[in-house]
TrEMBL record:
It comes from the Bacteria. This is DNA-binding Lrp family transcriptional regulator. Residues 6-76 form the Transcription regulator AsnC/Lrp ligand binding domain. Keywords: DNA-binding. One of its GO terms (molecular function) is DNA binding. Gene3D superfamilies: 3.30.70.920. The keyword DNA-binding applies.
Amino acid sequence: MITAIVLIKATAETIPDAAQAIADVEGVQEVYSCAGDVDLIALVKVAQHEDLAALVPGEISKVPGVLSTDTHIAFRSYSRRDTEDTFSAGLDGA
């Protein structure tokens, strides 16, 4: 499974509708509206690079109001839970 983070710039008046339209695209897991250099961030999970290549320019970029996208492919995931699970392996809480 390939995970990508897509940074999206959109026109201000279309952000809520664009976010929902993007969230409805197959392969898009979540969409966040945010402050900063971008307006929306989409978390995408697809089976193959070809799927990502079709999804971003073919669907996300064509959503009304979307001005530009910047896609980042994730190599590895890290989380606090992963770290805690590693250090608690084999412990039964005693």
